[in-house]
Amino acid sequence: MNATDTPIGLVEPPELPGAGVVLVPLRPEHIEPLASMIAEPSVVRWWSDPPTWIQRRLIEPDAEALGFAILALPDRTVVGYIQAWENADPEFRHAGLDLYLGTAHQGKGRGPEAIRSACRWLIEARGHHRITIDPALDNARAIRAYEKVGFRRVGVLREYQLHGDGRWHDGLLMDLLAGELNAG
Ligand SMILES: CC(C)(COP(=O)(O)OP(=O)(O)OC[C@H]1O[C@@H](n2cnc3c(N)ncnc32)[C@H](O)[C@@H]1OP(=O)(O)O)[C@@H](O)C(=O)NCCC(=O)NCCS
Asked: Could you tell which of 45, 131, 144 is best to mutate to test the pocket of ligand 1, judged by most ligand atoms within 8 Å of the CB?
């Protein structure tokens, strides 16, 4: 059995270095800051899980997804959360990412740095050739951030995601092939 056959949520989570950030396996001390960030208006608009969701991610790990706290360097402050998930079906094998940063940490390039670091690991260690991400169609900042890393627009996912306003919102499927990762 190859290391890449182990479901992503069951691997020994590594620490993933980046340019100005490091991704570290989710630990109890990360929960409070990450739960309070989820509740911030600039985050909840795009990520509508309740603050308790992040706690559950720690207590009830999911075999198909692996969560990391994003720490800013050099002081290792918690600035956000990123998770990598996999579709393990050999015919469609690929990975995906979801992330949020606290309001005070947005707009400083840390999202793209965290994504680059996760993508490098997914490509080099997990053997993926394709990674997807699916922001809301009107989340222009997220789309721009993902394009900076090398993600391309695939198409509109109509009425894809139920938001906190109780309405279904369009999403944008974006993908990145292994050779397209932009070093930044
Ligand atoms: C989306 C997110 C991950 C992006 O990470 P980030 O570190 O803030 O991104 P960056 O600092 O690289 O900035 C993103 C880019 O978008 C641009 N931008 C900002 N607001 C924008 C807007 N309203 N329209 C278009 N572009 C915008 C910025 O100018 C920057 O581009 P530039 O470097 O070419 O100037 C982060 O802002 C975040 O977590 N937001 C809240 C939750 C969220 O939306 N999660 C994503 C769910 S899919």
From this structure: 144
C-alpha distance from residue 16 to each of 113, 117, 154, 183 (Å): 11, 6, 28, 15
pLDDT digit string, tens, across residues 63-86: 999 999 999 999 999 999 999 999
Looking at residue 19, the DSSP 8-state letter turns out to be S
Question: Of ligand 1's atoms, which has the minimum distance to the CA of residue 134?
Answer: 48
What are the sequence ranges of the domains in the chain? 14-180
In this structure, which residue's CA is closest to atom 34 in ligand 1? 144
Q: How far is the CA of 106 from the centre of ligand 1 (A)?
A: 7
Residue whose C-alpha is closest to residue 114's, from 37, 39, 15, 35: 15
> Are 72 and 37 within 8 A, CB to CB?
no
Q: pLDDT digit string (tens) for 12-50?
A: 889 999 999 999 999 999 999 999 999 999 999 999 888
What dotted CATH number matches 14-180? 3.40.630.30
Closest residue by CA, ligand 1 atom 20: 141
Q: What is the pTM of this model?
A: 0.96
